[in-house]
Structure formats: structure tokens, C-alpha cells
Amino acid sequence: MSIIAPSILSADFAALAEEIKDVDRAGADWIHIDVMDGHFVPTLTFGPLVIQAVRPATKLVFDVHLMIERPELHIPNYVAAGADRITVHAEACTHLHRVIHQIKEAGLPAGVALNPATPVGAIENVIGDIDMVLIMTVNPGFGGQQFIPQSLNKLRQLRGLLASRGRGDMLVQVDGGVNAETAPLVREAGADVFVAGSAVFTATDRAAAIAALR
Ligand code: DX5
Ligand code: ZN
Fold first, then answer.
1. ipTM of the assembly?
2. Where do the annotations place a divalent metal cation binding (predicted)?
3. Is any ligand 1 atom within 6 A of the Cβ of residue 193?
């Protein structure tokens, strides 16, 4: 199974609702929404009000990736805005276990994201609590960066850890530099949810770009 999740970070923000409808028609499975606060990562994107404004554009899953500090202060606003699933960074959570359960108590699947330098062991003690692991395959903050090849070893390590703990069912998402060349490599290493920003939104034929990833 492959889930293709175009990241609207590379969409035309002046026409965000139309861009979302366009990738929906082009065959996207989820819409990946990169929330950046200008602190945890250098870039600042948008928050719950913009997400709420584009929520009527599609019925597809809104997969919200929070690259923000103190996510626990803001999670209720993202739930209210129409998020279907929320992923937080392990590096941004002093009390990761509590934040995961805050998401789950709101009724949403919870994901944990790991930056390239963060070991897979960072999720070891919450393996039973989460629904998805997001392996960042670039340093977060910008679209259009180069895939970090070491990510392939990390994905294999993660799949080994998950298997050893009876969580072979866990969704493993990759984000950053995913395109038609790198998608087969990350799939082979254990990924099943593919975030792609520039590879989808800069393509002249977005349906073909999504099909190529799949
Ligand atoms: C990285 C973001 C990604 C980004 C991916 O900080 O989390 O979702 O948009 O962009 P591409 O696919 O262009 O590397
Ligand atoms: Zn992302």
C-alpha cells in the first residue's frame, strides 16, 4: 500500500483552495499540511485559520505536520480547524507521551516526526501509543531540498525496531526530497506514506507526477 500526500508548502498560496482541489482530482490520497512557526524551523507558513478556510475544498484527509514549539498549546485549534491526523516532532515535545495522548483524546491518529539527526530510539517508549512515524528525509523548513541518503538506513532500522515490538502495522511516512527517483528507494526501505511537495506541485502534469510516485 502506498499513500501519496502532496505537501501544499509548494502550492500557490494565493490560490490554495484551487490547488488542493487540483491535486485531489489528480489522485492524491491525503493533503499534507506543513505548519511552521518560525522558531522550531526558520520558516513561518500558516496556522489554523488558513486550514479552516481551505477545509471545504476537499474531503481528503488533512494530514497536519506541526513543525512548531509547544504544540500542546495549539493542538485544540488544529483539531477544530479540521485536521484529520496530527504529527508532532519528538524534538519539540518535552512531554512527548502527554502530547500524543492529547491528540488521541481528541479522537485523531497521532504521528511522531524525527529530524534527520534524531535516532529512531526516540520513539521506543511510545511505540504502543502512536499511529505513524514520520522520518524526515531532509532537515525541515523548506521545500525542494535534496533527499538525505542516510535516511534509507534509518528507515530500515525503524522497520526492524517496529517488527521487534509487534508494530509491523505502523504507518511509516517520509517527507523531503521524495520524487519519482527516491520513492522506490524509500518504499524498499520500509516507507508507505509519501509526502511530496515540489515533485507534485511543480509538475505540469500533476496526475502523472502522483502516478509516478505510486
Ligand atoms: C519540509 C516539509 C516538507 C516539504 C517537502 O520541511 O515538511 O513537507 O514540503 O517538500 P519537497 O517534497 O519539495 O522536498
Ligand atoms: Zn511535512
1. 0.97
2. 32, 34, 65, 175
3. no
